[in-house]
Every structure is written in structure tokens, then in C-alpha cells.
Specification:
By secondary structure, this protein is an alpha+beta fold. It has helices at 5-16, 22-35, 63-71, 78-83, 94-97, 100-103, 107-113, 146-186, 209-217, 234-246, 305-316, 320-330, 335-341, 346-360, 365-376, and strands spanning 40-47, 52-59, 91-93, 121-129, 133-141, 194-198, 204-207, 221-223, 229-231, 252-258, 266-274, 294-301.
């Protein structure tokens, strides 16, 4: 196996110029396979909690073997288990991920590796790992070709690893930015809110930077051993479970919990039923992360209601009543609910809303909500 300087530069440039589309990376895998004498090359992401491949591409494997990998064998792959704690960017040989003497005793080897011309040797790099999803790229080499191709392939992958890591990390970051921008633009969410996407089993499939900080610093909100969002306070957890049930019937549900026991500081939780499946479905898109309809969970510190209402009153020259009902609409309370809780007629409340709309230059309540959101969260 000989890789000329010209071929290496071409392959390196090809990696750096790849987009998030499947075809771009398939051509890279095809080139790597040809260089390594027909090695089975791969790029796949692995769910670290469910221990299954989310998205995968193989070159050199038959369709039947690829399908069986997706359906079953990715979940019992001992090499992937061994990669979970490997430093990102590190290229290792297959025996460093899992000892060969133990591999030979596994169902994975005897039913998937051995029937494919005994592709038991190879190397791979952990190109990305955020604690929930891991990306690996590499190749598996036939036992009879090991002496000729394994070490040169390992050296080549080591040279390419920084570019591969850079491209994958960049694509994942851009997807996250795009997703978060879309959420903030379409939902009434406070700036700097923690944003989670969970499935119906509460498993976290996405957390923004604020959410990650909350998980690390809060004594009330954690990710459990199965990667599920969990509230340590029993009452709050009951409210969360209720919200999970209610969101099946309605598009939005909110509740409040204390940030820390013994304090008055509260956190506002809002759950949205969100069809995020299928979005950004390129190779680094999240279609497989969000294979099921997701539930968007936002968490923010509750503003001091009295101060907020006073600020709204002063900024928009509203009366006390108009500012109060405006803040309630911003919080998601309907005018019927507001009228009932304040012992007012619905006619009176509607007049207050009309006055608030007029004074703020808003055409409809959704315009008013966006205006107040900007005023409270500049």
C-alpha cells in the first residue's frame, strides 16, 4: 500500500471540502477502501445510552450485512463499547478497542465479522463524542491482507484524523446553532433558556449549552444513568410526568418548580410537542437522533412578576390592569383563565387587552407576546 503525497493531499482536501451530504463522505470512504486494498470502510454514529448505531455508511459490505448491522449487530459491537472512553481524535487499532482473544468468542465476530472474509483487523478514530453520541470512522481489513495493508492504513488514518475531527465537529456545531436559532425564532422562549429535546421516555437527545450547564450545576435537575431528564424533587417530578402526559393532547404545557429547596427562586418549565424528526437529514443531520417525535423542554429562571409588570407598565404607558393582563398573556394564560382567576368579566378583560394592543402598536396577541419577550429579555 503506497500513498503518494499527491494522493494524500487530494484526500485531505476532499475531507475538508465535504458538506453534510452523504455522497461527499461516501466518496471519501470509497477512496480509503481502494487505498487499503478493498477494506470495509465505515463512518457511523453510536448512541452511547441505547448502544446502537444512529446513522452509518459502509463501503465494501453487502447490503445484507449493512442491514443486519443496523438492525442488530451495531448493538453488540464490542469495539464500539471500547471506544466510549477513548479521547476524541485518537486513532487505535482494533485490538486496542477490544482484545482479539475475547473478540473471537463473541457472537459479533462469529456471525458478522468472520463471514465477511474474516475482517477482524483494522483501525478507527473517535472523531466526535458529546457524551450522548459518538462518531467513528475507519476500516476493517481481511485477515489475509493484514501484513500488507494494516500498518499503512493506520498511519494514513492518523494523518487524516485532525481534518476528519474538524469537519465532523464543525457540522455538529452548525446543526446545533441552526436548530437553536429555529427554536428561539418560532417559540416564545426567554433568551439564555436551557433547551432540551427528549423522547417520550424522557431520554435526552439534545441539550444546548445552557442546558448542559444546568445539568452540571443544579441540585434539582439531572440526567440519570440511562440519559433521561430527571427532577430530584418528588413533587416536581410528578408535575413533569403530568406534563409529559398532557403534551400528548395539547401543543404546550407549563409548570413551575423551586430552583433550590429553601429558596424563593423558581424555574419555569415549558414543554412543546415538536416534530423535529426528519430535520437536517444529511449525513450529520439529526433525522436519526430524532427518529421519534420529540418533546421540546425549555427551562428558565422565573422573573419577579411584580417587577416585570411594573416595567411593562412604564415602558408602554399602560395602566396597572393592562400591564397585568399583558404579562399574563405573555406567560401563556388565556384571557378566560385570567378573567376567572381575577374575578373579572370576560368583557372587561377583552377591553383591557384591546387597549394594550393599541398602546403597544400590536395587531394581535402573538405580536404582543413577541414585543413583551424582547422587552423582558433584551
Amino acid at each position: 500500500m503506497e500513498v503518494t503525497e499527491e494522493k494524500f493531499k487530494k484526500l485531505s482536501a476532499q475531507i475538508l471540502s465535504t458538506s453534510s451530504q452523504d455522497d461527499s463522505w461516501l466518496s471519501v470512504l470509497q477512496e480509503l477502501s481502494e487505498i487499503a486494498g478493498g477494506a470495509r470502510t465505515f463512518l457511523f454514529s453510536q448512541d452511547l445510552f441505547d448502544n446502537r448505531a444512529l446513522r452509518q455508511h459502509w463501503v465494501g459490505c453487502s447490503d445484507d450485512f449493512v442491514q443486519s448491522w443496523k438492525d442488530y449487530y451495531s448493538g453488540i459491537n464490542p469495539w464500539a463499547n471500547g471506544a466510549k472512553d477513548v479521547t476524541v481524535g485518537t486513532v487505535l487499532r482494533e485490538s486496542q478497542y477490544y482484545p482479539e482473544d475475547q473478540l473471537l468468542k463473541t457472537e459479533f465476530y462469529n456471525d458478522w465479522i468472520k463471514p465477511q472474509e474474516n475482517i477482524k483487523h483494522g483501525s478507527a478514530v473517535v472523531a466526535y463524542n458529546n457524551g450522548r453520541v459518538m462518531w467513528l470512522i475507519g476500516g476493517l481489513i481481511r485477515a489475509r491482507d493484514t501484513d500488507r495493508y494494516h500498518e499503512p492504513f493506520h498511519r494514513l488514518l492518523t494523518l487524516l484524523a485532525p481534518q476528519i475531527q474538524h469537519v465532523i465537529t464543525t457540522n455538529e456545531t452548525l446543526n446545533a446553532i441552526s436548530f437553536e436559532r429555529d427554536v428561539f425564532s418560532k417559540k416564545n422562549i426567554k433568551a439564555n433558556s436551557a433547551i432540551f429535546v427528549i423522547n417520550e421516555k424522557r431520554k435526552i437527545v439534545y441539550a444546548n449549552a445552557a442546558a448542559e450547564t444546568l445539568l452540571k450545576s443544579s441540585d434539582a435537575i439531572v440526567a440519570d444513568e440511562k440519559g433521561r431528564l430527571h427532577l430530584l424533587d418528588f413533587s416536581a417530578m410528578r408535575n413533569f410526568e403530568t406534563a409529559m402526559q398532557q403534551i400528548k393532547e395539547q401543543n404546550i404545557y407549563s409548570f413551575t418548580m423551586r430552583k433550590t429547596q429553601g429558596t424563593d427562586q423558581k424555574l419555569d418549565f415549558t414543554l412543546f410537542r415538536s416534530q423535529v424528526s426528519g430535520s437536517n437529514t444529511g449525513l450529520f443531520g439529526w433525522g436519526d437522533h430524532f427518529a421519534e417525535p420529540g418533546i421540546l423542554v425549555t427551562i428558565s429562571e422565573q422573573a419577579d412578576e411584580t417587577v416585570a409588570i411594573q416595567n411593562i407598565k412604564n415602558q408602554f404607558c399602560l395602566t396597572n390592569a393592562e400591564a397585568s393582563v399583558t404579562y399574563s398573556i405573555y406567560k401563556g394564560i388565556t384571557i378566560n383563565e385570567y378573567a376567572k382567576s381575577h374575578s373579572l368579566s370576560i368583557h372587561t378583560v377583552r377591553n383591557q387587552v384591546k387597549a394594550a394592543l393599541s398602546k403597544t402598536g400590536s395587531r394581535r396577541q402573538s405580536d404582543l407576546v413577541r414585543l413583551i419577550n424582547k422587552a423582558i429579555n433584551p
